[in-house]
Design goal:
alpha+beta, L,D-transpeptidase catalytic domain-like, Nuclear Transport Factor 2, Chain: A, 3 domains, five-stranded antiparallel sheet, five-stranded mixed sheet, 11 helices, 26% strand, elongated
Length: 406
Amino acid sequence: MITLLKFVALCLAVSGWAATGVAAQGIAATTSPVTVSDSGPEPLLVKVFTEIESMRLDNAMRLTDALLKQYPNFRLGHLIKGDLLLARTSQIKSFGALSGAPADRVDDLRAEAITRLKGYREKPEAQFVPRYLLQMQRDQRYAIVVDTKRSRLYVYENDLQNGGRPRFVADYYMTQGKLGANKLSEGDKKTPTGVYHVTANLPRQKLADLYGNGAFPINYPNEWDKRQGRKGSGIWLHGTPSNTFSRPPLASDGCVVLANQDLDAVAKNLQVGLTPVIISNSVEWLSLDDWDKERRELNKTIDAWRADWESRDIDNYLKHYSKRFKSADQDYDDFAAQKRQVNASKDWIKIKIENLSVFRNPGKEEVIVVTFDQDYRSNNMNNQMKKRQYWLREDGQWKIIYEGSA
């Protein structure tokens, strides 16, 4: 039993528990962060490992049976139960001690155990929000934030009663690409990082069993990806095969994969064409005060662009655009020339912006993705459209590097 105990101790240490001699329920109550909800098998899994470390194997078996009753296809739970059964008759020399057990599969389950416990322990506290969710549209009810480092997917609600503040709802273990994140090319087995949106809802009946209870494609590559030369397609948020509860942390061809029951829970909150899916290597968290400050500053910047356009001061208006600007077939010079020509025919311009969303792109370069309903009126033309812009911070100033229809 010595080696298994060392593994259990490692799991608990990685997850932030110093558990020896302390009852499992006491640990959960005193050291877990205060959050809105717990999702998945992690709470029971923590208690199982704590009982094993404390040599309360009968308690561990009872908890494992309860775990498997709730999640019958949970392979990690079955592996733990097998070890506990073997421990009744002989000393366990390794995690996954069944003779002839495939080493690669045991390694996958070991990685899943550590990842689940670490993600469970490190979930966000209520007074912090992801930096990326600066402002959601009023009709965007929820947002998805994926942390590939922790193999964790977070669901946030657009809390309109508190000024559109993101409110943590739930989190789930997830699987990413076999070779990790930062997708660059077709077939590289990596998951992309960036700001995306759900583009479709593919029902189970139209999919192979590999995709489980359904799939939600996202718009990779987006305009920023294309500017960076990133290629590929077919990145989905989807479920697991019918005979599989969950997959190892690194197991997909680039998609984000959830257990079917978790996908079902998340799917209730997904809106095609609206729900943002932000994938990051490691989520940045802001205090509510810092989040509010950053949001207000960016909203002020966006409104200054609108006001300068409305003023017909073409030089001030163009100062909001990067010299690296590209949109469709236009570069900055083409765009500036066209705007000067159009502006010369205007006696007045009125610009109204509604349903604004502002999402910060994960990564070293400071990029924000801005989407809004634009109502343009002038003395000789009226136009309404949904517009999307990418703003890049250059020399301390936010500049538009792309804009087009959303």
